[in-house]
Design a protein that fits this description.
alpha+beta; CRO Repressor; 4-stranded antiparallel beta sheet; 7 helices; about 180 residues
Length: about 180
């Protein structure tokens, strides 16, 4: 159960190689794999983890081997993230650039196609963020991390009401201060 069946160096090297290969492959196949997952994307990611399992653990099914593999994966991820944090230019190359999907209320169809997103998937993203129509959107950007940054053309009704409430409270505060003779 705890006896390693594969040399320690191989146990550490296997997860590192698989990790680096997966990072490169996910970078090549785009931000969509990280963005809103449809059922097909989810199946691919789940199958991918199962596919590379044997490449990571090899013939070793011991607890020690699994823990060493997990430690190697977490360790290489930690080192890569720290390295990229200190080297922003390289980080931009590895992560990629943001893609503008909507600009001034107009869908950028060529960018949508580049990211393999359908119009209905884009509308689903907008609906989840509280938008009813593309016309309400000033800009929508698909970030390299797979998140969508959506900017509204006009402030949301809740924001307008909140600002008005704050303005009125400040006015009341000013009037109370005047009535109290500045003693509040």
């Amino acid at each position: 159960m705890f006896v390693l069946m594969v040399p320690l160096a191989e146990k550490i090297l296997r997860p590192v190689v698989v990790y680096l290969a997966l990072v490169v492959l996910l970078r090549i196949f785009g931000k969509r794999e990280l963005a809103q997952l449809n059922p097909f994307d989810l199946v691919v990611l789940l199958s991918l983890s199962n596919t590379v399992q044997n490449a990571i653990i090899g013939n070793d099914n011991s607890v020690s081997g699994g823990l060493i593999g997990a430690f190697a994966l977490l360790g290489v991820n930690y080192l890569v993230v720290r390295f990229l944090f200190k080297h922003r230019r390289l980080d931009q190359i590895v992560e990629g650039k943001p893609t503008t999907l909507i600009e001034r209320g107009k869908v950028q169809n060529q960018n949508l196609a580049k990211e393999l997103l359908s119009h209905s998937e884009l509308m689903t993203v907008l609906h989840r963020q509280g938008f009813d129509d593309v016309d309400e959107v000033e800009q929508c950007v698909l970030e390299p991390s797979g998140t969508f940054a959506v900017k509204r053309k006009v402030p949301a009704q809740d924001d307008v009401q909140y600002a008005e409430l704050i303005r009125r409270l400040e006015h009341i505060d000013t009037r109370l201060t005047v009535l109290a003779g500045g003693k509040i």
